[in-house]
Amino acid sequence: MDLTTASSPALRLDLPLSRARALSLRAGQTVRLYGVMYTARDAAHARMTEALAAGEGLPFDPEGATIYYCGPTPGRPPRLIGSAGPTTSSRMDKYAPALYRAGVRATLGKGERALSVREACRETGSVYLVTVGGAGALLGSRIVAAEVVAYPELGPEAVRRIVVEDFPAWVAYDAGGLSIFPGDQPLGPVGRAD
Amino acid sequence: MCHRINVSLPEDLRGALEQGRDREQLACARETLEVLLANAEIAAREDLPLCQDTGMVVVFVEQGEDLCLHGDLAAAINAGVAEAYVGGYLRRSLLANPLQRNTNTGDNTPAFVHLERVPGDRLTLRLAAKGGGSENMSALWMLSPSEGRAGLVKAIVARVAEAGGRPCPPLVLGVGVGSNFEGVARLAKRALFRRLGEPSPDPELASLEAEILERVNATGVGPMGLGGVTTALAVHVLSAPCHLATMPVALNVQCHSARHATVVI
């Protein structure tokens, strides 16, 4: 893939993301992800939210974690995972603020989200990242390790711990209230009515 | 067939993505289309699905009136779908119960089969693997006849703008106008099966397609909603007679992973 046409060179982001690194990011930046993420989508989010509400822990340490909204295809052996692109993030909007408050520092998916998610990023010093929907073959090939860590009965919706290298993405919502999407206005400073 | 369409991007679609990339000025838009073209190469080379949402299978069957078929055609199609999805490491995305949502059917069946009778003695199967994210952004309106063509264009453009990056633009838009409540949705789906960008043979509909495409690409949504001028690659419209009190309009949104194939038996 030739990405030399980028307006600015891609930033390397190591995961889990430190708070300082998250605060330094700006919406619109091109990034390359390296490190650990957890896949989860609709059904897994419903269960994780129930667990949080019941005072139970999440199936992974949320501190600094990145959640990838993804339900991959099964890998053809010896592959551990098949095609693995993002699903539509807005379906997870109702769950996202609680997870950011529990320590999650980045979510990764595709498409615009509710204002409550942008506000949660700003409130918790976190980010929302997007990658290319429908590029599952390319993105799956940037996953170097994968294992199911919770809810195996959910099949493609199980929570997987994955390790990625050179995984392309953009910062969509930053911790300062800015958005990559052309229709979005910047949010004001924390605490001010917008 | 299910497996092939899931790993191989149609040539017409590849050409349209290349044209979009060459037209885009915004870095995000160009990079997104570059990633999609690179994705198609990797998918073909590694025999990997283009997208992890390997879709629900939609089949339009045209059965010649002089052709006599014994047995259950839908069951035969479902058996083929199950074999391709289970054996081919495609994702099984169908839930048995839409309210309980806890049981996968396990083999990506049932397929959504539409049967049409046509003259002749052949059997034509038009098959698509249709993703859920784009299906979610589809819509049906029972417009007032007084809203007319302008009302149709306005509804569709507003819907695409509102959907933004969620349905994975650049899109192919299938539009139905006329028929009735259930018929118009089927027209919109059927319109997606036309060869990409081939205009309607009806000059009025061809001009409507061109108008919608221009207006949609002026919304600024762009590839994956990150901005740009390539929001849709094509608009296909089908029409049918309707009741004088009604103006049914349906929009079936197709993502850029427009996975289609036709076989004639």
Question: Can you summarize this structure?
Answer:
With 194 residues, chain A is α/β, with parallel strands linked by helices. Chain A contains five helices and seven strands, in the order E-H-E-H-E-H-E-H-E-H-E-E.
Largest sheet of chain B: 4 strands, mixed
Distance between the termini of chain B: 14 Å
The helix-strand sequence of chain B is: HHHEHEEHEHEHHEEE
Structural class of the helices, strands and pairings of chain B? alpha/beta
Radius of gyration of chain B: 19 Å
Helical content class of chain B: 25-40%
Sequence-ordered SSE layout with sheet pairings:
The complex is a heterodimer of chains A (194) and B (265).
Chain A: E1 11-15, H1 19-24, E2 30-39, H2 42-53, E3 66-68, H3 96-101, E4 106-109, H4 115-124, E5 127-130, H5 136-140, E6 143-150, E7 159-173
Chain B: H1 2-7, H2 11-23, H3 27-46, E1 56-64, H4 73-87, E2 112-118, E3 123-130, H5 132-135, E4 139-143, H6 148-163, E5 171-179, H7 181-191, H8 203-217, E6 232-242, E7 247-254, E8 259-264
Parallel strand pairs in B: 1-2, 5-6
Antiparallel strand pairs in B: 1-3, 3-8, 4-7, 5-7
Helix pairs in contact in B: 2-3, 6-8
Give a description of the structure.
The complex is a heterodimer of chains A (194) and B (265). Chain A has 194 residues and is an alpha/beta fold. Helix content of chain A is 20%, strand content 25%. Chain A contains five helices and seven strands, in the order E-H-E-H-E-H-E-H-E-H-E-E. With 265 residues, chain B is an alpha/beta fold. Chain B has helices at residues 2-7, 11-23, 27-46, 73-87, 132-135, 148-163, 181-191, 203-217, and strands spanning 56-64, 112-118, 123-130, 139-143, 171-179, 232-242, 247-254, 259-264.
